[in-house]
Design brief:
This protein is an alpha/beta fold. It has one domain: TIM Barrel. It is globular, with a radius of gyration of 19 Å. It has a seven-stranded parallel beta sheet with strand order 1-4-5-8-9-10-11.
């Protein structure tokens, strides 16, 4: 195993000493970058881009060519798993993801099976190993998946939702059916992330984008229990290196202590919680990732610098912080504002670390 030139991100996740706070951005390979839009137009559509390892590699590397980020994240989509389960994922222009065969009846739900990631999601594993090779050990590669509950939201509805009425109706009327979907999803996500680790991912992240729409009790039963099931089943080491895990529930600030207790290495935070308060609440159990409001990047470099400074100051002295946005970067962000954020993190964070 050859050594990483910059392993600051991995060390921060493991709460080891670093010289500065590492930074990457959720959705860092995306539509705010003109070069990404060119790659995407060559691919014809978003799904074809995800399924072409050459283009996925190109998209993954684009933000790293532009900004001195401390990690790369696999270019893919959270809905690759339900697609591999045969639900027929497609993207309509301007409408987001849709499924041809959503889970509208009991038979479809009972027939769900865990896809073999090395067969049905081979294109993802090929992309991971290709990206890992292309990174040439400059920075670590993050693999990822959607959470069981977040995937179920799309699988049951057949697309995006604003009120989550479809999934919540099932949750309260037929919890047995939803638990069945979630169990299959959890086993699928575990297999998928472990296959990404074997293909070369050096850290993994679970995106629980919609867990925050649940009630307190429902979150613990229908989202967190399955996140724990996945974390329990993840490979902790590969090729002699530790593989850290990050769990991110958007809107999950209320349940920080519960999330920190499931065994993940780091908890991702959205921008609605003060990171210093979060650190105080979880103690030294986990690292924290976050949590600048992505809308800050609509301002100007001076404001960005000041807001970055506030997040760093709030986290305070010491290790265990990975700087990130509280959610994905907006497609309307100017690349130079993203550059200003990265520069500010690298410069202003040094005072909080040992030298």
């Amino acid at each position: 195993m050859s050594k990483l030139k910059n392993d600051t991100f991995l060390r921060a996740l493991l709460r080891q000493p670093t010289e500065y706070t590492p930074v990457w951005m959720m959705r860092q390979a995306g539509r705010y970058l003109p070069e990404y839009n060119q790659t995407r137009s060559r691919a014809k559509d978003f799904l074809s881009l995800c399924k072409n390892p050459d283009l996925a590699t190109e998209a993954t590397l684009q933000p790293l060519d532009r900004f001195p980020l401390d990690a790369a994240i696999l270019f893919s989509d959270i809905l690759t798993i339900p697609d591999a389960m045969g639900l027929g994922l497609y993207f309509s222009t301007g409408e987001g993801p849709k499924f041809e065969r959503p889970l509208h009846n009991e038979r479809g739900i009972r027939d769900l099976v865990v896809p073999d990631p090395n067969v049905h999601l081979r294109y993802v594993m090929d992309a991971v190993s290709q990206i890992r090779k292309a990174l040439n050990n400059e920075v670590p590669l993050i693999g990822f998946s959607g959470s069981p509950f977040t995937l179920a939201c799309y699988m049951v509805k057949g697309g995006s939702s604003t009120d989550f009425a479809t999934i919540k109706t099932m949750l309260y009327q037929r919890p047995d059916l939803l638990h069945h979907i979630l169990d299959v999803n959890a086993r699928a996500v575990t297999a998928y992330l472990n296959a990404q680790i074997e293909a070369g991912a050096q850290a993994v992240m679970i995106f629980d984008t919609w867990g925050g729409v649940l009630s307190h009790a429902a979150y613990h039963e229908f989202s967190l229990a399955y996140l724990k099931q996945i974390v329990d089943g993840l490979k902790r080491e590969h090729d002699g290196a530790k593989i850290p895990s990050i769990v991110y529930t958007k809107g999950g600030g209320l349940w920080l202590e519960s999330i920190a207790a499931i065994g993940c290495n780091a908890v991702g935070l959205d921008w609605t919680i003060d990171i210093g308060e979060a650190r105080h609440r979880v103690g030294d159990k986990v690292a924290l990732q976050g949590n600048l409001d992505p809308a800050v990047l609509f301002s100007n470099p001076d404001t960005i610098r000041a807001e970055v400074g506030k997040v760093l100051h709030s986290y305070g002295w010491g290790n265990g912080h990975v700087f990130n946005l509280g959610h994905g970067i907006s497609q309307f962000t100017l690349p130079e504002n993203a550059a200003a954020m990265v520069a500010a993190v690298h410069e202003l964070s040094r005072q909080y670390h040992c030298h």
